Amino acid sequence: MTEPAAGPEPTPIERRSWLTLLITATAGFMVSLEITVISLAFPEIQDTFDASRSTLSWIFTAYNIGVAALLLLAGWAADRYGRKKLFLAGLFVFMLGSLASGLSVDPSTLIASRVLQSVGGAMQFPAGLALLLPAFPPERRGMAVGIWGATGALAAALGPTIGAILINAFGWRSVFLVNVPVALFAIAAGAAILQESRSEDLPDRVDPISVPMASIGVGLLVLAIAQTESWGFVSVPTLLTVLGSAALLWLFVHRSRTHPAPLFDLALMRIRSFSVAQVGTMFFCAAFFGWFVVLPTFLLDWWGYSVVKTGLALFPGPALAAFVSPTVGRIADARGVGPVLAVGGFSGALGLGWHLLFTGEEPNYIVGLLIPSLFVGVSAGCSFAMLVAASMRDIPPHRYGMAGAGRTTAFQLAVALGIAIGAAVVGDPDTVGEALSAYRLNWILVMIFFIAQGVLFATLYPAKPPEASARTSTTG
Fold it and tell me: CA quadruple 374, 379, 382, 386: dihedral positive or negative?
């Protein structure tokens, strides 16, 4: 009886690869944390500066606009001038912005410091992903991206919990100052360990006109989305801002089709896995952040939870996501990312369905919060990292920075959209009954987004044998 033929030995993973993952994941955790960590710091910041809520909303808005507006330029710069160089420079700028935010003396200084933070965040995101992908063999990238994405997802989801603990112990300034030692570690380790890489076929200069078109166009779109709570969805300022954004982005796309040195290569959108994953990113992020960012207000205002209790109550879902993400990364390496992302969408929909059925006016942590948040935690574990893997699966190495920037731009826009929809739907109710009705409407919208994610990846994402990833053809 003959022995069955053994399969090919898996490519060994070097120590430097694991260290690259550690550094880029640490940086990603820190930058992703800024999306939600300050959500529970608003009352203390408002008391410190005696500023209006509309003024302080720019602490969120300025960061989101800055990151989204600069990502495409940062992705091109990473591919052209060096991913390691831009990654380390971005961490340094982010550290300076964090230090300035923690030492701010008035709202204007804090908002300006958040803009500086956003510049560093935009530089770091695409460069970090472009450094990570070539460090691992193709058949192990799903696992690597799973761990990397899990840290970023965990950071965004744990923001309220970490923020509550820091604020209770050290005050609101600590949510910014904690970034300084983390950034110093990542910079020192990255300088010693990371290997430089760049694209050799990009022109020396990018189209100078498309840079402001893309940056201002995306920035205006994020501004319109973020300001809908104060401006209204249908108002003159909102409509003018959206029209200005649409005009600039149309001109950007038109120019990018014909210019020999575009800021973003539109040929990437013809890669089906990339384009489908961008739509899926919009569905998932609008769902998750539309649910998660407004949920603490319900617990604080209507269930009577303290800041610390709210932070701890929200912890199990993100913790489950961090546990699930590396595991589903290995499943995706073997089975493909499409089925994993379909499961993620349907799991999130089940969680929101549970909310609609069992979350009521009276506090009931197990039934009304824990169970639905665990379903959403499974969704986050299946989705955050795997959306990155789905986007980048067929991208040629010389376009890692540019494609990563495009993916993260879609992510930022979807985050802003989800938060804006959630805030607008929830509004400012006067009674617990009105609040529950408003939140249930928001949960219905979130559930629809989750279902759309599940259907999209179950039907439209292209299946491909895992071993074919190493033979992906390049785009021209």
Answer: negative
Angle at the Cα of 224 from the Cα atoms of 232 and 89, rounded to 5 degrees: 145
DSSP state of 133: G
Exposure string for 121-132, b = 16+ CB within 10 A, e = fewer:
bbbbbbbbbbbb
Residue 134 contacts residue 159 (beta carbons within 8 Å):
no
Q: How far is CA 151 from CA 144, 182, 192, 203, in A?
A: 11, 14, 22, 34
Provide the token pair at 425: 């739907």
Residue 448 is encoded by which pair of tokens? 């629809």
In this structure, the answer to whether residues 202 and 217 fall within a common structural domain is no
Domain co-membership, 332 together with 227: no
Q: What's the gap between Cα 322 and its chain centre?
A: 15
pLDDT in tens, 328-343: 877 887 788 999 999 9
CA 10 to chain centre: 31
How many CA atoms lie less than 13 Å away from 123 in the CB half-sphere?
20
Report the chain's mean pLDDT, rounded to a whole number: 84
Q: What is the pTM of this model?
A: 0.80
- Nearest partner of 198 among 354, 75, 104, judged by Cα: 75
Amino acid at 465: P
pLDDT tens for each residue of 266-284: 888 999 999 999 999 999 9
> Tokens in use for 445?
């919208």
Give CA–CA dist 351/365, Å, rounded.
Answer: 14
Q: How far is CA 429 from CA 21, 242, 329, 437, 441, in A?
A: 45, 28, 41, 9, 13
Question: Quick one: 407 and 336 in the same domain?
Answer: yes
For 438-453, what is each residue's pLDDT tens digit?
999 999 999 999 999 9
In the chain, % of residues over pLDDT 70: 92
Judged on CB neighbours under 10 Å (0-12, 13-18, 19+), 52 is exposed
Among residues 247, 262, 277, the one where a domain terminates is 262
What is d(CA 96, CA 102) in angstroms, rounded to the nearest whole number?
10
Total residues belonging to the chain? 476
| Domain span holding position 289 | 16-206+263-467
Which tokens go with 412? 């930022």
Same domain, 116 and 171: yes
CA distance 125 to 64: 13
Q: How far is CA 399 from the centre of its chain?
A: 20
Residue written as token pair 């574990």: 381
